[in-house]
Amino acid sequence: MQKLKSQAGNTAVIVLVILLVLAIVAGAYYFFYLNDPTEESSSTDTATTSDSSSDSSTTSEVPVDPSNPVDELIVNDSEDSDEVAEEINSLEVIYDGSSFSPRTLEISAGETVTFTNNSNRNMWVASDPHPIHTAFSAFDSKGNLDSYSFTFDSAGEYEYHNHSGSSHTGTIIVN
Predict the structure, then answer these.
(1) What distance in Å separates the CA atoms of residue 99 and residue 165, rounded to the nearest whole number?
(2) How far is C-alpha 78 from the geometric centre of its chain's CA atoms?
(3) Which residues in the chain land under pLDDT 70?
(4) Domain limits of the chain?
(5) What is the pLDDT of residue 43?
(6) In the prediction, which pLDDT does 127 show?
(7) Pick from 146, 79, 139: nearest CA to 116
(8) How far apart are alpha carbons 53 and 10 in whole angstroms?
């Protein structure tokens, strides 16, 4: 009888040690891979841009990343000017190792989006679905890069992800 109590006690200790190790591993996984202390609120800031270079004035809202210094689209609004202003038609999406910012970017057809990796993790930008990238196969960096630029010529909604971290996603809306 005493031997039976001793074996039951040892089994209970082993089970407790296993549960403790599992809890520590789960906590470490959450802390290092799921917890993002840099992630801010999910609200999206927008900036209004206007284009008066054509006969009719157009105003649109563009998501703005407060940490991105390129948060303004400048257009030549002087109709009397003989100088040809260089068009600014490049927008930036920043990858911080856990997400893209802005997650949704609305642009006009013909604009170029540059995806910049500001982390020490790999960034391979590609269209959905993962892992085959067939929704828009031309939109694929074909490998891990520090920076990738792509010009969206056709209107549509293009969902993308980081092939090296497929839960990190975003959307480009082209008007």
Answers:
(1) 9
(2) 35
(3) 1-6, 8, 26-90
(4) 1-35, 45-174
(5) 39
(6) 94
(7) 146
(8) 81
